Structures are given as C-alpha cells and as structure tokens.
Amino acid sequence: MEQKQTRPQTRYGIDFIAGVVTFAVSIYVMIKSITFWKEDFVDVFYYSSGLMPMMIGICLFIFSALYIRRTVKEHTLKGCLVDVKNFSIEFVKSKDVHKTLIGLVIFWIYIFLMLGKMPFWLATFITLSALLLFITWEKSAKKIIKLLVISGVGTFMIIFVFQIMFKVPMP
Amino acid sequence: MDVLRYIGEAFVIALSPAGLLALVLSVFVGLIFGMLPGLTSTMAVALLTGLTYNFSGPLAVLSLLAIYIGAISGGNQSAILLNIPGTPASAATAMEGYPLALKGKAGLAIFVATGASFFGTMISIVCVALFTPLLTKFALKFMSHEMFLLALFGIVICGNLTSGGDPLKGWISGFMGLLMSQVGMDTVYSYRRFTYGNINLAGGISLLPVMIGLFGFPEVVKAFSGAKKTAMQQATKYSIKEGLGILRRNWFNILRSGILGMLMGAIPGVGEDTGGWLSYWSEKKVSKTPELWNHGCIDGVVAAETGNNAAIGGAIIPVLSLAIPGSTSAAVLLAAFWMHGYRPGPLLMQDTPHFLYYVIVFMVLASCLMWFLGIVISKFSVKVLSVDIKILMPIVFICCVIGAFVVSNRLFDIKLMFVFGILGIIMSFLKMPGAPFLLGIILGNMADENLRRALLLTEADISIFFTRPISIFFIVLITYLILTQTPAYMRMQEKREAKKAAARAAKAEMRKKD
C-alpha cells in the first residue's frame, strides 16, 4: 500500500495502434453526430440526437490524442512501429495465439454456422467435443472416448438444468 | 409498520420452498464459482442473470445476491488450499491463508475466513440499511443537469479506480461504453443512431450479451493457454471452539475491517479486492506481532475476508441509491436488477420502497447460509478444486451462449456476445478495464436524456451548472480527477515528492552527524 501505483506494462506498439483506432473512431463519431442533427429535424443542436455523440466524440478525441502523445513521447514513433512489427512476428509464431485463434474459430462456427441451423443438442455436443479434444489433445483412444463421454454428459446436463429444470428456451 | 411488512414479505419469499431452493442453490453455486480460479463473482452474477430470467423479480434478486455473496466468500478456500485466489477479492487472504495451510491449519483458516466473511457481510448490511435511505433522499434533490453530472462522475471515477494506475485507459473504456449506449433509438425523438439499417440494433444493445462477452468470454479463452498447477493442501480437522475464540479475539479487527471494506465497496469502481487489501494492510500496520505476518498470521485472514465481504454491502449502497455500482460485480448486479424490472436510483424509495428491505433480508439469509455451507463445502473443496479448468471452461462457454440468448430469444444477441467477447479479450490485453465500459452502457441513456432535458428547460443556459452546490461539487470533482492525470500536474507532484525526499535525506544526514 505504501508503494506508489505505477502504470501496468503493456506493448507500446499496441497502445499506439489502440490510440490511433480510438482517434479515428472519435472523428467518425463527431461527423456522424452532425449527420444525426441534420436528419432528426431539430432546429437547435443542444436538443438534437447528435448532442451526446458529439460530446462523446470530443472526449474520445482528447483522450486518444493524449494516449497517442504519451505513447509516442515515451517510446518515439519509430520505436512504436518497430514494436508493432515485433509484436506481429511474435503473434504469428506464438503457440498460445494459435490455440486461442483455433478456439475462437470453433466458437465462431458454433455461433454463426451451427446454432439455429441444426438441433441445439447436436450443435452443442459437436462443439463441446471439438473444444475438449482440442484443448486437452492426447493421441489415446481411451482419452478420446473419455472426452466424448464428458461432452455427452455436459450436453445432457446443460439441457436438463436450463431447458427442463429452469424452463429456459434454448437457441 | 410498512417496514415490518416489507421485512415479513421478504422472509415469506425467501423461506418459501422455491425461495429456499433458490437460496441454497445460489449460495452453493456461488461458493463453487468463487472457489474455482478463473470463475469470478462477476461471471457468476452475469450467467445467473440469464438463468433467473423466468423467475419472479424478488426470487431473481434473492438468487443474484446469494450467488454474489457466495462467490466472494468462496474465493478464500482456493486461496488457503492452493495459494491461488478463486476471485481477485481473496488475493490478500492467500498471503496468510496458504502459509497456515502449510502448517496444517487449513481447516481452521477456512473456518475463521468463512466466519469473518459472515461478519463482514453483516456489518455492511447494517450500513446498507442505514445509509441507502439517507443517500436516496439526498439524491432526490438532484436536478436533470446534476443527474447528467452524476453519470459523468460515475464513469470518470470508475475509470480512475479500476484502471490499475492508468486512468486514461479507464476513461477511454468508459466513453466507449457511453458510445455503445447511443446505439439504437434515442430516448427523446426515437431517432435511430448507429444502427446502419439493422433492425436488431434499433432497440439498443442488450446488457446481458455485453456483460457475458466482456467478463465471461475472455476467461473461457484464457483456458486455451496452459495454466500451471500448484500443490494443494488438505482441509485439516480443527476445533470450532478455537475458531470462534479467534473470531472473538479479533472483534475490533473485524469491526475496523468491516467499515474499511464497506467504504472501499461504496466508492464506485474500487470493489472487493481493494477492500480486502486495505483491511489486511491496516491490521498488519497495528499488529503487535508483525513477525508472524507473511508466515501464516490468522489475524490477516480475518482482516482480508472481513474487508472483501464488507465491500459487497458497500458496493450495493450506491447501486440502490444512485444507480452507480461500487464494483464490477455490482455493475453486473445493477444491470440484472434493471432486467428484472427494478429501477435502483433516487426514486427507489418512492417507487419500490419494499426493494431495499427485500435486499437486506435476502443478504442476511444468504450470508448466514454462506457461513454454514462454506464450512460444509470445505470438507469437499479438495475434490472441487481438482476439477480440470480446461474441461470446465468449454461448458462455461455454452452457458455464456445460453445466458446471452435467454433475454430476448434472439440469435443476434449471441453474435453480439461473441463480438463483445473479442472486444473483452483485446481490452484485457491492453489492460483496459471492462467495468467503466459496462457502466457507460448502463448510464449512457440517463446522461443523454437528462442533459438534453436540462438544456431545453433553460434554453441552453449553461449557467445552471454553476449555480447549485451539488453541480458545482460534481464539476470540481470531475475536473480534479481529470487534472490529476495531466502531465503538468504529474510533473508538479514529482517535484513535490523529490523535494520531500531531499528534505528527509537532509534530516537523516543531520541526525547522523549529531
């Protein structure tokens, strides 16, 4: 408690990109807020639907400018760009990132391609099995069967608890 | 008389068969969630909100409060047995709890920790009962422009306090949340903003998919990268008399930690973990046996657990009276109250006066049950903690999907949850806090509506912002919070500190010479 709180360490290259993205968003929001005012047929800006977005846009503009300025001042623009390059290389090579991305792809397939297009229990069983096999992969028939059983039991429990016990509608 | 009637009604609801079942199950599930590292109290409340969607309002509130209390307390078991806090709130408990477990006193430590959690919650409940009506009465004096400033203050202070030392990121997160709240039809003219012709966005962004996406999804994804296992200790046998004796001996520690934890909980965005740490630190400062600390001092466990659980009530006070949450979990709880038709805020005691008393009774019952169940579960916690988180997380993901779907029965909300989940992962990578983002979404429409109303009533005369003490108070506070982060202020602060350090060094030099 006696120690002075320091800023958490993050990748400054990514901080720079986040700042630029926020900056772009803030400009877009400010332009959009003028459009809202013109389109909602309110004479005065202070009562139009563009007021709040404009205020948010201005605040984000200031904060992102401070964010970019701080990052560039501490690490220089060139340093930030080099860090972005290094980060991209690490990102492409990292096994953890690969695992996370594959996991996210499985989530995406489940949410965007399977749900609503096939029975919920089937989609859930397939996804659970895929996720469990992927996360804890081991080339052993016994382990695979065990994980498939866990997926089956998990799917049954989810449907039993949510749909049957609590009458929650399923996707 | 009305108060007694409300309290009676709350007991009838909680002690009905459905109420009892909901209470026991929620505390139990909360304890398990709290116990398992990776599953947080915020996640527990967010997921249960979907599950309780078909419940009656009071029953849902009972379940949500019970799971919140259970989850904060449950974290102590993994902190003591594994040296891994189940929730961030129990981080301070691990400092003394794990060394105690290594000495073979895990059972006693869990008993004392659960007891301290109970007393911490009870102290904070007394504060909820005392301060919520007062604060609500005061908040009724707020005019439209002051309500706008209150919302703004909530986001700024939440950004300040949850950012871990980088308020700029907290504010960006909060204002991004405010921006998200602008999606959909505006509250005055029903003009569609940022909908891009998508009919699903016309009604705005639902809270539950955002909550689950921001707080649940990133935890699930973290399971993809391997987690190291720590040697687990067994919950050993202990004497209840000894445990109660320790709690009795620590009565002042409990009282002080309870008040400190409650105060920390009441400050928007600070939450249970700071409550635990501050209480731990304050007890350590006054301890007569400093040599025992960090080697298994039971007083530290008492202080940390009282502090983090007292923050629950503290966090609920601003939720009920001002609709501004004191912690991330309380932000999710506020959103859940909204979804169940309750409108916490200045009008709470006028519109739904029973709600406060329901909350108080439900919290009392949940904390009593938490003490009992916490001790019972400690006998099996080694087994619970042996569950492989990598196997659990895919199932939690499916629960996230159902939770996002259940409010409006729209597949669109699941897709929204996925999108906000990705955003949550990016934010957690950037160390950008999620709580201000959620608060921005909750308070966005309130801020918009009140600001425009105030400007319309005064024909854009901004002098109203400087003519009443409440608005001046908020303006000064917001300005101060923002100015403290400017480079000029920081340089000034550094100079002042350097001067102080130089003076101290000179004094020390003088003393040496003498």
What is the string of SSEs of chain B from the N terminus onward? HHHHHHHHEEHHHHHHHHHHHHHHH
Oligomer: heterodimer
Q: Taking all residues together, what is the mean pLDDT of chain B?
A: 84
Helix content of chain A: over 70%
Helix-strand sequence of chain A: HHHHHH
Q: Tell me the strand percentage band of chain B.
A: under 5%
Radius of gyration of CA atoms of chain A, rounded to a whole number: 25 Å
Structural class of chain B: mainly alpha
Class from secondary-structure proportions of chain A: mainly alpha
State the distance separating the first and last CA atoms of chain B.
Answer: 72 Å
Most extensive interface, chain pair and sizes: A-B, 64 and 62 residues
Instruction: Please state how the strands of the largest beta sheet of chain B are arranged side by side.
Output: 1-2
If you had to describe this structure to a student in words, what would you say it looks like?
- The complex is a heterodimer of chains A (171) and B (514).
- With 171 residues, chain A is mainly α.
- In chain A, 77% of the residues lie in helices and 0% in strands.
- The longest helix of chain A is centred in the N-terminal third of the chain and has 28 residues, at 12-39.
- Chain A is flat and about 65 Å long.
- Chain B is built from 23 helices and two strands.
- In chain B, strands 1-2 form a two-stranded antiparallel ribbon.
- In chain B, strand 1 and strand 2 form a beta hairpin.
- In chain B, helix 3 (41-51) packs antiparallel against helix 9 (207-215) and helix 4 packs antiparallel against helix 6.
- Chain B starts with a helix and ends with a helix.
- The chains are: A mainly alpha (171), B mainly alpha (514).
- Chains A and B meet through helix 1, helix 2, helix 4, helix 5 and helix 6 of A and helix 8, helix 13, helix 19, helix 20 and helix 21 of B.
